[in-house]
Amino acid sequence: MGLLNIIRDLCISLLLFLVFGTAFAEITFPLSAAEKTRAQEQEEEFPMNWEKSTVSRGFGNSIPDLAERLDLAQQFKSGEVAYFFRNYEKAMSLWLPLAESGLADAQTNIGWIYQRGLGVEIDLQKAKFWYLKAVKQNHSIAQNNLGAMYEHGLGVEQDNKLAFEYYRLAAKSDYRFAYYNLGSAYLNGIGTKIDKKAAKYWLQKAVDNKVEQANKLLRNIN
Fold first, then answer.
1. What is the mean pLDDT of residues 109-119?
2. Is 194 in a helix, a strand, or coil?
3. Exposed, middle or buried by CB within 10 Å (0-12, 13-18, 19+), for 93?
4. Which residues lie below 8 Å from residue 194, measured CB to CB, with a gap of 6+?
5. Cβ neighbourhood burial of 200 (10 Å; 0-12, 13-18, 19+)
6. Which burial class, exposed, middle or buried, applies to 94 when counting CB atoms under 10 A from its CB (0-12, 13-18, 19+)?
7. Which site in 83, 106, 193, 195 is 20 to 30 Å from 161, CA atoms measured?
């Protein structure tokens, strides 16, 4: 059954790309191969990434003390482990309190869960709700995913100019999938004038950051 779930998720991801030609992001911190191996052995061994976790991502002006940050970071990582093993209900239960407390990473992840219908009914309005909360904290992945929703009219009225602006903001924050989406926007005139020079620049950045689907578009320019 696990293999069938993996095949199903891969097919869904491929379908999203084939239908929309847009790079969405699943969770805010993709797990490395080493982390995945350790996850199978012992959840507690996951390292905490302070740069991208509770210190830099949210809670507004209410910064928890060090002990609380440690607990929150561990809770967030535990949610990642649950997500990796496709226990989406557990991931939701761990991330939702963090999202409600203002953690932008958790807000983005909850948005993705609702967008994809992972352990819950697909609810694009709730996806938008949580993405917007993270966007207010300049979260690049939320900006990228919300841009994709506006480009394709997913739960919102299609607005290519707004999609372009969100892609631009996410790319400015050095988010690699936004490089691809922004390059595609320049290449195809999505929310902006066609600019092959700009398209080539952003698609090359995407290729340099291992966004495989950017290679095809880049070859079309060259």
1. 94
2. coil
3. middle
4. 186, 187, 188
5. middle
6. buried
7. 106
Q: How far apart, in whole angstroms, are the C-alpha atoms of residue 130 and residue 182?
A: 22
Band (pLDDT 50/70/90 cuts) for residue 40 is very low
Q: Is the pLDDT of residue 38 over 60?
A: no
Kindly list the domain boundaries of the chain, sorted by start residue. Answer: 22-137, 159-222
Give the global pTM.
0.73
Tokens of 40: 């199978």
| 92 pLDDT above the threshold of 70 | yes
What are the DSSP calls for 46-109, one per residue? ----GGGSTTTSB-TT----HHHHHHHHHHHHHHHHHHHTT-HHHHHHHHHHHHHTTBHHHHHH
Q: Which of the residue ranges 3-7, 99-103, 106-110 would you say has the lowest mean pLDDT?
A: 3-7
Q: Look at residue 71 in the predicted model and tell me its pLDDT.
A: 83
